[in-house]
Design brief:
- About 40% of the residues lie in helices and about 15% in strands.
- With about 150 residues, it is of the alpha+beta class.
- It has one domain.
- The strands form 2 sheets. Strands 1-2-3 form a 3-stranded antiparallel β-sheet, with no helix packed on it. Strands 4-5 form a two-stranded antiparallel sheet.
- It starts with a helix and ends in a 15-residue tail after the last helix.
- This is HNH nuclease domain-containing protein.
Length: about 150
């Protein structure tokens, strides 16, 4: 029921792209989009998630073979090796967030960088569940120049 109501009201939240809106004027639309997307999960093919996980493993180089010839992956949160079946690929900014709200929140240059491997971690399956429900927050480390 809530999903139907949110989907109905969702149609009225998309801003008119006249190019004259400022980031501040678009903020309420981005907030509504975010809330809607937290309730409306999109199903995706398992091959997409597998590809994303493989890309993360290669990018971060978090794989090794243990003494029993078993594939192990490093959890970036617990700092422990574990069976690859117990490690999940997570999106820092949730997969279900669409590009438009990310641009409204983070700006165009930053939002465009979020979808490849720069927007992911390999985590233990127990921790991944919390990320999928948008419970933890990842705070990027800023350099002295950015601070």
């Amino acid at each position: 029921m809530i999903e139907q109501e949110l989907a109905r009201s969702h149609k009225s939240t998309i801003p008119n792209h006249s190019g004259k809106e400022t980031m501040l004027e678009l903020a309420p639309h981005a907030q509504i989009e975010l809330i809607l997307q937290l309730y409306m999960k999109e199903e995706r093919e398992s091959t997409m998630q597998t590809t994303f996980k493989n890309e993360l493993v290669d990018y971060y180089d978090v794989k090794h073979i243990d003494e029993k010839d078993q594939k192990q992956l490093w959890c970036m949160a617990s700092h422990k090796w574990g069976a690859h079946t117990q490690r999940k690929a997570v999106h820092i900014m949730p997969f279900r967030l669409r590009q438009l709200p990310l641009i409204h929140i983070l700006g165009k240059d930053v939002a465009e960088e979020l979808w490849p491997v720069k927007n992911g971690h390999i985590l233990e399956a127990e921790i991944e569940h919390y990320f999928d429900n948008c419970q933890p927050a990842t705070v990027p480390s800023l350099s002295e120049e950015d601070a």
